[in-house]
Design a protein that fits this description.
The structure is a single chain. By secondary structure, the chain is mainly beta. The protein has one domain: TolA/TonB C-terminal domain (2-Layer Sandwich), CATH 3.30.2420.10. The chain is built from two helices and eight strands; from the N terminus they run ββαββαββββ. The longest helix is centred in the middle third of the chain and has 9 residues.
Length: about 100
């Protein structure tokens, strides 16, 4: 448990993933769950897959690596943090 004054980070820039053509052709939909490590400046420095959909994993990771956060502040000092991210992939259906 962490004590002290904490200022929660906010998502400043979200980049949507590019749906891989092979996944579109295979009609693959679903959710990729990632763990992201965010540095003191709010940049995503590392991404690991927690729940995989093999045709979609790389697209999810590439998108999340481009996300930017406001720094997490602990007692006024910027700190690294880890968060879990869910990226959903849904094909658009013609009606």
């Amino acid at each position: 448990m962490v004590g002290g004054e904490v200022s929660q980070p906010a998502l400043l820039k979200r980049v949507d993933p590019v749906y891989p053509e092979m996944a579109v052709q295979a009609q693959v939909e679903g959710v990729v769950i990632l763990e992201a490590v965010v540095d003191r400046e709010g940049r995503v420095e590392d991404v690991q897959v927690l729940r995989s959909l093999p045709l979609l994993d790389n697209a999810a990771k590439e998108a999340v690596r481009q996300w930017r956060y406001s720094p997490l502040l602990l007692n006024g000092k910027a700190e690294r943090f880890i968060l879990t991210v869910t990226v959903s992939f849904r094909l658009k259906r013609d009606k």
